Amino acid sequence: MRVAVISDTHLPRGQRRLPDLCVEELRRADLILHAGDVATAEVLAEIEAIGPPVRAVRGNVDRDDLAHLPEALSVDIDGVTVAMLHDAGPAKGRLDRLRARFPDADAVVFGHSHIPLHEERDGFHIFNPGSPTDRRRQPRHTMGVAEVSRGTVAFRHLVVDPRP
User: Taking every annotated instance into account, which residue ranges of this chain make up the domain Calcineurin-like phosphoesterase (predicted)?
Assistant: First the structure.
């Protein structure tokens, strides 16, 4: 199963939109995970209209029309439990803290910092896809893809900079 992972889209904002490469990856996915800061219910509906099912958590800039989104959730994907929340807290001790918070999870997806990150220890993964629309101080716009099969997961980052 192919899972597209995004976070921190912060739309709408000016002329900003999801880059074409990001939309192509979302279309190819079997499932989309959004780790918060969608911003509005209208934007979430636009992402849902791309096709694959979307699971999302609420971020700190999400408006009241997204109040129905949970702060955290867990999804079973082909035998892999992926937990998700927006803000995973300080970098120091993050992997151990998330493992303790989600003891039944195989992986935790989060956002908030806009900093792409993948750490793994003893089969437990933490993954931040970065942002496809708001790179802040990062050099590139990014998203993630997870390949899930028979109880295993492999994460990777994709650069989705807008085409000139």
Answer: 1-150
